[in-house]
Amino acid sequence: MSGVTETASVSSLGKGDSLHHQVLAFFPLCDLTEEDLIQNPQFCKLLATLAQHVDQTGLTVPLKTELDKAEQKLQSQRRNWLRSETLHRGLQEMIQDHCVKKHHAAVPPDQTMFNETMEKCLLVAQCVRQLDLSSTTNQDQPSVLGLTPQHVMELMPSEKNVQRMRQSLPRQLEKHLKEKSLSILSYYQPEWESESEGLKTSKLSYLSAQLDKEKKRAESLKEFCRENTFLLQRQTQLYLSELTKCIQLFQSLILDHRLKIQTDLDLKKLEYFEGKCELVSQKIKTEMVEIQLDTYTPDSISAHRKIREKLEAELKACKADKQSVELKLSSFEILGKEFEALAEEYSRLKKEIELKNWALKEFTQYSEK
User: Fold this and answer.
1) Which of 13, 93, 214, 227 has the most Cβ atoms closer than 10 angstroms to its Cβ?
2) Residue 171 falls within a domain, yes or no?
3) pTM of the model
4) What CA–CA distances, in Å, run from 8 to 22, 59, 61, 207?
């Protein structure tokens, strides 16, 4: 039975894309997208079912009813408080205006008496309210300086002055409120300031309706701005999501394209460097040939050939002498250590002979001189 009810409630909202849009519109505070609802159809059905029992703020119908009643009661108490507060502030403004006028111009005695009486009555009433302990939870709370409301009531003006003040108070208060209303009207519509007082009074009667109309218009614009803000946030979110997907796709395309062309690029670079190395190698060989051509002329080449032939002939002769000396040395080595001692003795005697010949030669040179 509950499944049938749930299906009926879901079908009453819509199907497919219509259901997704209605769920998103009914729960604007949830950070959801249409893609989330498509990927989670059971969750979408759950939200569609909840939409039949709660409002857009998430409150149930009974709780919303109680909240509306409490709001109405609060508004009623607020209006009563604002009425009394407005009256009290109006009286204080009248007293302040009287003090300002008294310092700038002469004020009639009856007006002075009226304002002084009203000021004393307000002060006494305020003190009595502060000293009244009937509204406090602690009845044993000590009074301020031992005063009671009866002590403060003794400071009230005379009954005669109070009666006169009460008789003229509605007229004075009405005059003050009218002047204040006219100043508000002049602020709201500056072009009406030059018109007559009667016309201003007539237009003043429509001021409340106009202000209320302007307030409703401002609230509607505020609601419109809030809806546009929500729509802009959702569109921004969708835009960022799509932009992220496009960036990922673009990155994958770039990566694939780079991997495909990297091999061809490497081959091209390899061929280029191979060709460049071959060119440098040929250039080196060419430079070497040029250096050889500049260094070795035909005459120098023929001279080098003759020198080479002569050196080769001398080398051949030296090799032959070496071979003969090696044969003699090998024959001498056969004689053993006795021949080695004779050779050393022969070498020593030869050095002594050479030394004596050099000394004899030197001696002969000096003797001839």
Assistant:
1) 13
2) yes
3) 0.42
4) 15, 22, 19, 50
